[in-house]
């Protein structure tokens, strides 16, 4: 995919170089995993596809946003994305043979821990941006999807509801634009989102009896259904009471409250 380096005086090369470094780090991690566990073709292809897709989409988004620099917070998120790529490769390879659970748990745990770091770095350095927030959210969502695939191999396909719910919401927003209105800040929403990875990791670690793991995953699904249901209800009520006001107008009203 060819990307122009300059556009109206904007030099995209510095940020593109950082995304290229991220792709290189991803390939290096895959090489280390492949050496350590003898990863099969599915793992390699999935990991490489993830690396290429991350590089291509992120490079394009950075070019369009015209950020002057990549920023420290985005570097943390890119490092987390690299770990998620490793987890993705391991899960894809698990259809051939079970990967070392400790390795998968270790990579996932570090990725989840870093999820609480990039936001703090962005705020402390004054480098918060809509692109950075979206990048962070997409990495989170994809990790949850991959973990749900892994846990579903033991618990059943119903676990995929956890990983797929956010993507169903995005698809539904294309049919019902009122779902795209901005939501008010919510600690509960953030807590539920953070718990998804933790609970799926607990179930995937296979340290507890099967029945207990089932309960853990059901808890994660129940919390997610409650969180999405509450937000959809709020958006629906807002669209009705405000006559389907544009998202920008709704946000102005929220700020004024």
Give structural attributes.
disordered C terminus, 257 residues, CDP-OH_PTrfase_TM_dom, 2 strands, single chain, mainly alpha, 77% helix
Structure description:
- The chain has helices spanning 13-37, 41-65, 72-93, 101-125, 130-155, 160-175, 187-204, 210-241, 247-256; strands at residues 6-7, 10-11.
- A hairpin with a 2-residue loop joins strand 1 (6-7) and strand 2.
- Helix content is 77%, strand content 2%.
- It is globular and about 60 Å long.
- Strands 1-2 form a two-stranded antiparallel sheet.
- Helix 2 runs antiparallel to helix 3 (72-93), helix 4 (101-125) runs antiparallel to helix 5 (130-155) and helix 4 packs antiparallel against helix 7 (187-204).
- The chain has two domains: 1-154; 156-257, no CATH class.
- By secondary structure, the chain is mostly helical.
- It contains nine helices and two strands, in the order E-E-H-H-H-H-H-H-H-H-H.
- The longest helix has 32 residues, at 210-241.
- The chain crosses the membrane at residues 27-58, 131-152, 215-236.
- GO terms for molecular function: phosphotransferase activity, for other substituted phosphate groups.
- Belongs to the CDP-alcohol phosphatidyltransferase class-I family.
């Amino acid at each position: 995919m060819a990307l122009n380096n300059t556009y109206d005086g904007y030099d995209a090369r510095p940020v593109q170089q950082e995304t290229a470094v991220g792709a290189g780090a991803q390939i290096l991690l895959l090489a280390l995993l492949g050496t350590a566990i003898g990863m099969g073709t599915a793992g390699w292809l999935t990991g490489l596809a993830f690396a290429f897709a991350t590089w291509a989409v992120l490079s394009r988004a950075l070019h369009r946003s015209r950020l002057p620099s990549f920023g420290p917070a985005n570097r943390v998120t890119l490092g987390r994305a690299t770990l998620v790529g490793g987890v993705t490769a391991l899960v894809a390879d698990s259809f051939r043979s079970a990967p070392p659970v400790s390795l998968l748990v270790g990579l996932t745990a570090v990725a989840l821990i870093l999820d609480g770091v990039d936001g703090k770095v962005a705020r402390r350095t004054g480098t918060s941006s809509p692109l950075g927030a979206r990048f962070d959210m997409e990495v989170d969502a994809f990790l949850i999807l991959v973990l749900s695939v892994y846990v579903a191999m033991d618990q059943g396909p119903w676990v995929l509801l956890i990983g797929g719910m956010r993507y169903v919401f995005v698809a539904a927003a294309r049919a019902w634009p009122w779902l795209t209105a901005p939501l008010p800040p919510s600690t509960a929403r953030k807590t539920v989102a953070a718990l998804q990875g933790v609970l799926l990791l607990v179930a995937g670690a296979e340290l507890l009896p099967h029945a207990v793991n089932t309960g853990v995953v059901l808890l994660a699904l129940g919390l997610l259904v409650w969180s999405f249901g509450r937000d959809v209800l709020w958006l629906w009520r807002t669209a009705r009471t405000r006559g389907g006001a544009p998202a920008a107008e709704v946000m102005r009203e929220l700020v004024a409250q």
